[in-house]
Amino acid sequence: MRRIAFVLLLFTFLTVPAIGDEVEVRRLEQSFSLGDADDVDIDITVGDITVEGTDDRDVTVDARLYCDDSNLERCRKQAQELRLVPRIGGSTFYVDLRRTPWSRLRGVRSELIVRVPRHLEIEIDIRAGGSATISGMKGEIEVDGGAADVSITYPRAEVGKVKLSSAVGQSNLIVDGSTIEGTGIPRNLTWNGPGRHTVEVDVGSGDVTVTLE
């Protein structure tokens, strides 16, 4: 497939154990034109992401940054330095969050909602920890992760194949209200449907659930 990379380095923050209460210190909201892109690749180092399919042509990003109130001032200052910077290289569309290395050390945590044209193909890479929730899409979906919980809701009429794998965790497919469980180690599951698109998830650890409606 021709891949248009949508690299979201917003999740290069490491989540630190909470000592006090978390405070939302910043919110970033931006829209980006995809041009002729027909594929979106989301690269996450760590964190939670929600992808929602829409009828719009643009991609919108809603990012919320949190700090622990035990070290609020230093963390807040670091959060204010972060910038979402879109760029296009050839046929590739990137969105980077600049100045992320220091944020990993200073405890900024983030939650991200990405709204994507529903007909596009998407690939999500979750490198270490976090979760992915995907709904409203009608194109190819591929999710790979080292450690991640993944939940996908997808129209049954559009799917040609579902392929799920979790080395440590559960792989479940829900069809017509019934649950099909993955078997073996890793927990693998393959299911063929009436459509033409593939929904594929492969994680090292975590629970994977795909619901066909």
Beta-strand residue percentage: over 45%
Summed up, the helix count is 2
Spatial strand order of the main sheet = 2-5-8-4-10-12-18-14-15
User: What's the helix-strand series?
Assistant: EEEEEHEEHEEEEEEEEEEE
Secondary structure tally: strands: 18
Task: Give the termini distance in whole angstroms.
Answer: 26 Å
Structural class: mainly beta
Fraction of residues in helix: under 10%
pLDDT < 50 runs, ≥5 residues: 1-19
Shape: globular
Biggest sheet: strands, sense, closure?
9 strands, mixed
| Overall radius of gyration | 18 Å
> Mean pLDDT score, rounded?
83
Could you explain the architecture of this structure?
This protein has 213 residues and is mainly β. 8% of the residues lie in helices and 58% in strands. It has two helices and 18 strands. It starts with a strand and ends with a strand. 37% of the residues are buried. Residues 1-19 have low confidence and may be disordered.
